[in-house]
Amino acid sequence: MAGCGHRPLYGGSGESSSVVQQLSDVSIDEQKTRAGQIVRNELISAFGASGNSRYLLKMQVAEKTDSVSSVPNTTVDRFRYRLNVSYQLIDAGSGNEVAGGKTFSNAAYDTVQEPVADLQASENARERAARELAQDLRLRLSAFFANRES
Fold this sequence. Notes:
Blueprint: H1 19-24, E1 26-28, H2 34-47, E2 55-70, E3 77-91, E4 97-111, H3 115-149
Parallel strand pairs: 1-2
Antiparallel strand pairs: 2-3, 3-4
Helix pairs in contact: 2-3
């Protein structure tokens, strides 16, 4: 595939640092909400840590739950949990924003009017949405670093 100009996203090209190395050089800002903490923890696990913080990832995480439907004559209700994130990747040396954007994730869940089960369903939706969001952010930042190498 090298002959046609394609190269693996997470592979090194030899002349510059790989995307994986650059991801490990990103430190992630502390978060104030539980959803933000979950996203941050997922990113820390995905990025690894080199100890060299060349970049700082700042995130503003907002969460919202909407009622989608209610089944008449039953106790079943359907909800949609939504996570929205605005992010900025800051170059630690200059303090300038080098990348940024917005992304979101949705996760649906049902409640059955059983408090413990309903709470667990809600928490599971939050964790699923946060994992999906972290994967999207990792891919976006990986693409950014890969394009900088070109």
